[in-house]
Structures are given as C-alpha cells and as structure tokens.
Design brief:
The protein is an alpha/beta fold. Helix content is 29%, strand content 24%. Strands 1, 4, 6, 7, 10, 11, 18 and 19 form an 8-stranded mixed sheet that branches. A 6-stranded parallel sheet has the order 14-13-12-15-16-17, with helices on both faces. Helix 13 links the parallel strand 18 and strand 19. Helix 6 crosses helix 7 and helix 6 crosses helix 12. The longest helix has 13 residues.
Length: 377
C-alpha cells in the first residue's frame, strides 16, 4: 500500500519506509513480479519469467529500490492500445545476486546503483564521458530486446561492469533515497547545468518543477550560480526549490514568463537555462529567456520532432545542447556530496509504494499529487 509522505526530511522518509516495508524476498529462478504498461493509463503488476543471465557480461540484481520517472508519464498519457506491452522502470538500486563469467569487478552481495542506460564503459564514447551513446549500450524499461524494467523484483543488467556502480553503504542506509537519484534525476539535472555552462556568479533559470528540474536547482547551486530562477507554479515544488537554493520564482508561462525573467535580470535574460520538460512551449521559453551568448541545456525528453526557437537562438548566439544524460559519468563526482550531506536530492521523493501500489503511483504523479514515487518491491 502507498504511503503518502508529503515533502518530508530524509530521516522521516526513511522511518516511514522501514515501518512499512520488509526486505524484498526474491527467489532466483522462480517467476517474479514486474510492472507492465499496456496502454495509456493501463499499468499492471504481472507475474513474468524470472530475470536471468544471458551474456557473460551480465549481472542479475535483486531490486531494493526503484521509482517512477516523469518520462514514464509520457507513454502513460499517450500509449496506444495496439502498442505491445512494455516493461517499465529505468532507475534502481539493488543487490547483485549473480554475475556472468566475464565479470571481474563485481560480485554477489554488492549493493549497486543502476543508471537508466547500460554501457560497456570502454568504447570511445564512454571514454569521453558520453555513456548514453555507447556503441554496445541501450536503455532499461523501453522494451529493448530482452532487457526488462526496474519496477520489478529483479533485473538483468547488460554490460554490468561498465554500468553498475558499487555503493559504500548498506541497503537500508538512511541516504538511500538520495543515492537512488544518482540513477537518473540528480545526474540529469546536473547534465542540464553542465551543458548550460552554469558557473560561479552566473544567473540560471530552470524550466520545469518536476524531480529533474528540482535536481537542476541543486546542480545550479552546487556549481556556483548566483541567481537561480525556478519556473513553476506548484506550491509544494516551489517550496522545495527554494530549500534547494532557488532565489526567485516565476509562475507565469509563455510571453508573460519571458517578460518576468527579463525583469528579474535587468532586461538581459539569464546566462544559463536548464530545460527539464520537453514540450515545444517549454523549449521556446527556455531559448527566449537566455541572454545573448547564453546557453540552454535540454534534458526534457522532446515530445515533438522539431525544435522551436531556432531563429531566436541563432540571432542571439545562444548555444543549445543536451540529450539523454550520461549519468554514469557523473556518479563519482556527485556521490561524495550525498554521502557527506551537502546535497539532499532524495527529498524529491514524497511517496513510497510497494509493487502493488505502482499503478496508483503513476496516477498520483500524473495528477500532480506526487513529485516522485519510490518503489520498494
């Protein structure tokens, strides 16, 4: 059953988790339970064949924490009834149960965080820090071959040595919520900030007040931005953004939002924009509020084939970049700040469910009752 926690401190979330859930009991080789999406609004928990090793570079993990992502809401709203069933979930922390014969750096019993994309860690793109373009890589929870989703009891992880990162804590550590954000939202918010060239003394604006946008506020603060504008209108999210370091709030949209940002920046616009939504309107707003010579980091999954704002970007010499965040490349940089308590991205989780509560977790996020839902199988 779901536990609605509101915007709580991490210690309160941990207490509620420990009070409500016992450790998952996954028996290797037996059928397991997993989340499957059949169409818009149709999410089911089903018994499916157990995850198993396929390649010698695989690892099998027992999922101890998963979550629902804002990007999962796009198919939840639009997936057609004729589309094939899709395993869901791409963010996880888990305990390794078994490794393939080629694995040398991982072992059974290791607690690991799993980025939303798998990668070999050795190809030219991985070596350049762009793991989401790995030549042997792919994504979890999108129905790619026999790679499943992480909203499940167990999961096969391809290219395990290049994908999984061993955590130096126990599986019930109080920091588990924040550590889970390293699988996607914290690394994605950080990627937006990096691409947008956030730096000391600069001004930044974050378009979108979901979990990624809120983590973008953390990232902008961490990288030294002097002014951080959160563009959102939900009171609970705005309050959390302020707690994370936002200095100003813009609740307007469209041209009114652009005018308001310019008022807050002396008429010039901001140096750096983090676009964390993916719609045409949000992208156009992001480009329009950047000052000449500024930069936009796009991490919201685009919902349209073309990008608006091209003339504005061109004549303003505005750099526009971004894409699927190579979160595996950022874990080593971000992990110490979480372990030492300098950042608390786990505060974006405001509800925890078991597998049976996942369908209602989707509903709660779609209805804006929840920012981000944690799943404890």
């Amino acid at each position: 059953m779901p536990v609605s926690t509101g915007t709580l401190a991490l210690r309160d979330l941990v207490f509620l988790e420990q009070r409500t859930y016992s450790k998952a009991q996954h028996t290797k080789g037996s059928p397991m339970r997993a989340t499957v999406m059949y169409g818009a609004g149709d999410v089911r928990i089903e018994t499916v064949p157990d995850a198993r090793l396929v390649q010698p570079t695989d690892a099998l993990i027992r999922v101890t924490r998963g979550c629902i992502c804002g990007s999962d809401l796009w198919p939840y709203a639009s997936r057609g009834p004729g589309d094939p069933p899709r395993p869901m979930g791409h963010e996880a922390i888990g305990v390794i149960e078994q490794v393939g014969s080629d694995i040398r750096t991982l072992k059974a019993g290791d607690l690991v965080v799993m980025p939303f994309a798998y990668s070999d860690g050795t190809c030219e793109f991985c070596r350049e820090g762009l793991h989401t373009s790995c030549v042997h890589g792919g994504f979890f929870g999108v129905g790619m071959g026999d790679v499943g989703g992480a909203q499940a009891e167990a999961l096969r992880v391809p290219q395990a040595e290049g994908t999984l990162f061993v955590l130096p804590v126990g599986e019930d550590d109080a920091l588990m919520a924040s550590l889970l954000t390293l699988s996607d939202v914290m690394g994605t918010g950080h990627h937006a900030a990096v691409v947008a060239h956030v730096g000391p003394g600069k001004s930044a604006a974050v378009v979108g007040d979901g979990a990624v946008g809120l983590c973008g506020v953390i990232a902008a603060k961490r990288l030294g931005a002097e002014q951080i504008i959160i563009m959102g209108r939900h009171p609970d999210r705005v309050a959390l953004a302020r707690a994370f370091g936002a200095t100003d709030v813009v609740g307007e949209r469209g041209e009114e939002a652009v005018e308001r940002v310019r008022e807050l920046t002396g008429g010039r616009g901001v140096h750096s924009v983090l676009e964390c939504v993916g719609l045409g309107e949000s992208t156009e707003t992001a480009i329009s509020i950047a000052r000449p010579g500024g930069a936009v980091g796009r991490v919201g999954v685009p919902q349209e084939p073309t990008m608006p704002g091209s003339q504005t970007a061109f004549y303003g010499n505005i750099t526009v970049g971004g894409g699927p965040a190579p979160v595996r490349a950022y874990i080593e940089e971000l992990l110490p700040d979480i372990l030492e308590g300098r950042i608390e991205p786990g505060r974006v989780f405001d509800r925890t469910v078991d597998l049976d509560g996942v369908p209602d977790g989707y509903r709660a996020m779609a209805d804006r009752e929840s920012i981000k839902v944690m799943v404890r199988p």
